[in-house]
Amino acid sequence: METCGSCSSNELPKGCKNHKACGTGNCNSKLSVFNWLSDIHPPVSNNHIQYIEVRFKDDRKDFYINDSSLPIAIGDIVAVEANSGHDIGIVSLTGELVKIQMRKKKAKMEEIHKVYRKASPKDIDIWQNFRNKENNVMLEARRIARGLGLQMKICNVEYQGDGTKVTLYYTSEGRVDFRQLIKDYAMAFRSKIDMRQIGYRQESAKVGGIGSCGRELCCSTWLTDFRSVNTVAARYQQLSINPQKLAGQCGKLKCCLNFELDTYVDALVDFPPSQTVLETERGKAYCIKVDVFRNQMWFTYTDNSISWYPIDIYDVRKLIELNNKGVLIKPLDELQEKEILKIDLIEENNLNRFEKRPKSNNKKKSKNNSRQNKEPKNSTERQGTNQKKKSPKRSN
Q1: What is the pLDDT of residue 364?
Q2: Triad 135, 132, 147: Cα angle to 5°
Q3: For the chain, which has fewer Cβ within 10 Å, the N-terminal or C-terminal residue?
Q4: DSSP states of 121-136
Q5: What pLDDT was estimated at residue 373?
Q6: Per-residue pLDDT, 345
Q7: Which 3 state secondary structure label does DSSP give 151?
Q8: 35 and 104 fall within a common domain
């Protein structure tokens, strides 16, 4: 029976039915892939070249050519060509979708390596042994870098499948002198050393964690491309520019600020400019807030900035037209038919703002009213009820 790699139930998840087309490996694997063309068999010619996508540690993937026409399926462990020696990885995608991914990622055909064979039990044992050493190697690499006084941080280590090369990922704000460091690493680890600098976003993706929303980090679960995020996205969404709230685990602005940015930009097209100033009989009113969901703009006076007045955006346009004609509009609290409540958001003038407000007795009043409604209102109704109670039962 097929089983899921991370479940203890010894069975596939309900509704999975991957039929060898799912490349997740387990229920919570990053960069999961599903081949939606697995049931479609394109015409195969003699000169047809097969390409596969192989996944390595964390989010590293690469494309390879299967020139030997090996029967390879998603989830197989294969030995592939590397710059020196061979590497071991898991097949994540096969078929025509690989060519689409290659065009999307602009893969260079001359840099694509070959697939040697399916990994033998010996290859898998060597691969797993070096994978188990990676944590200890990372701690030792940090100790050596700290002893040399280098301003860098080793955040991840990856061994090649045959153990001939070890790649150390590090973060640093400036340039690092590797002349003595490479010699010490080569003596300590007895393998070829490859140093790769990554950004702080890539570091958080490799380390993982829980965000302020209570979910796993997007970069460590599904996000593959790291787009630049700036404070303009926060201003469009009317968020306070507070670095402690807008920064993620990596110390940079959260990637989720870009998720709804396009929706806000499209919605703000219908809004007047946020720098709108209304000329009223009481004085100038400035826009202090924009409510995208209710299509409202909040205005306040310069001499009384505590009171905010919400106005619909279509009414704001009419008021702007009146100002352009040189007409002073009425005070904001007299514009609408109903009285607009002056909202003191800070409650600066309320002396009891820190005290607990008593609960309302609406429930008790409703119970008393229901009891009074059940009681008979006049005396005739009461007499009728008493007669019903006193009437004896008839004997058969």
Answers
A1: 56
A2: 30
A3: C
A4: HHHHHHHHHHHHHHHH
A5: 57
A6: 53
A7: coil
A8: yes
pLDDT of res. 27:
44
Looking at the fold, whether 93 and 172 belong to one and the same domain comes out as no
* pLDDT tens digits, one per residue of 237-285: 888 888 888 999 888 899 999 998 999 999 999 899 988 999 988 889 9
Select the more confidently predicted residue: 62 or 8: 62
> What are phi and psi for residue 253, nearest 5 degrees?
-65, 145
Long-range contacts of 179-184 (CB under 8 A, 24+ apart): 180/148, 181/144, 181/145, 181/148, 181/150, 184/144, 184/148
Query: What dihedral do alpha carbons 66, 67, 68, 74 form, nearest 10°?
Result: 10
Residue 211 has pLDDT above 70, yes or no: yes
Q: How far apart are CA 170 and CA 103, in angstroms?
A: 30
**How far apart are the C-alpha atoms of 222 and 224, rounded to whole Å?**
6
> Which two three-digit tokens encode residue 148?
């040399």
Tokens of 294: 């209710």
DSSP H or E stretch at residue 233: helix 231-236
- Distance, CA of 8 to chain centre: 28
Q: CA triplet 222, 158, 147: central angle to 5 degrees?
A: 120
pLDDT digits 0-9 by tens, 337-383: 444 444 455 555 566 666 766 665 555 555 556 555 555 555 445 45
| Tokens standing for residue 178 | 């590797």
Q: And the tokens for 262?
A: 């396009």
Give me the domain span that covers residue 250. Answer: 205-267
Per the structure, how many domains does the chain have? 4
pLDDT average, residue stretch 91-101:
88
3-state SS, residue 203: helix
Q: In this structure, is residue 288 part of a structural domain?
A: yes
Q: Which two tokens stand for residue 36?
A: 């939606």
Q: Is 82 exposed, middle or buried (0-12, 13-18, 19+ CB in 10 A)?
A: middle
The tokens 């299509």 sit on which residue? 295
CATH of the domain at 166: 3.30.300.20
pLDDT at 391 > cutoff 70: no
Q: Which two tokens stand for residue 19?
A: 């039929």
pLDDT higher than threshold 90 for residue 143? yes
Q: What is the 3-state secondary structure (H, E, C) of 306-355?
A: CEEEEEEHHHHHHHHHHHHCCCCECCHHHCCCCCCCCEECCCCCCCCCCC
| Token reading at 341 | 């409540």
pLDDT at position 40, please? 65
